[in-house]
Amino acid sequence: MFGRRAKQFVGRLTVVALLGGLGLSGAAGTAAAHVRVDGGDRPTQGGYGLVRLIVPTESDTASTVRLTITVPDGVDLASARTLPIPGWTATIQREPTADGERVTRIDWETSDPAYGLNGSEFGVFTLSAGPWPDDVESVVLPSEQGYSDGSVVRWDEVALDAGSEPEHPAPVVTLAAAGAGHGHDGHGDRVDASPDPASTASAATEPQLWLWRSIAGAALVIAAGSSIGVLALVRRSHVPKP
């Protein structure tokens, strides 16, 4: 009787651990699966700087073929440049202001499905722009992610507090304090050695994946150790006493 119950317990414990590990792996994908700003480089308040948007594809049946960001009213970016992406075209829209003009919208798009981002890929969309506001610490950039099947996901929601995250959070550019020591060229790009955008994006994503994978792995190890211990007890119960 004891042996049968122990085996049932081992089976249930292993199933629970496996399901827990799979659940944690799924949570890791969900946590990283939204358009966001890479925090490696930060534009300065009142100055210029680089912004890298990390764009993963959530769909298993369609690929990402378009990204659009909207610059909010009150954020008067007089200049913006985009880093070329093979197979993609970038368009910068502007509107007149009292002092000249401001950037209102940036669109990246590909018309060739071969260059779209499928479900196992992400893209890095980089712009250099400024001047950024000098009286705020961050700027929200509402975005739209277009798919090859015609669907559109809008990343335009703002968290109500630091402890919550909306379903479709908008990318947020965090600004560095003025005089933080960032070097700039004539347009505001960093002149020190900057990491490759793809490697920076990978570095930004890997810590999250590593954490969840480590937790899932630990759950499996605990389950395996428990199974071995219970099986040892089962075997001892069947050893004839001298």
Automatic annotation (TrEMBL):
It comes from Rhodococcus rhodochrous. The chain crosses the membrane at residues 210-234. Residues 1-27 form the signal peptide. Keywords: Membrane, Signal, Transmembrane, Transmembrane helix. Residues 178-201 are annotated as: Disordered. CDD domains: YcnI_like (cd08545). This is YcnI family protein. Residues 182-193 have a biased composition (Basic and acidic residues). The keyword Repeat does not apply. Residues 34-175 form the YncI copper-binding domain.
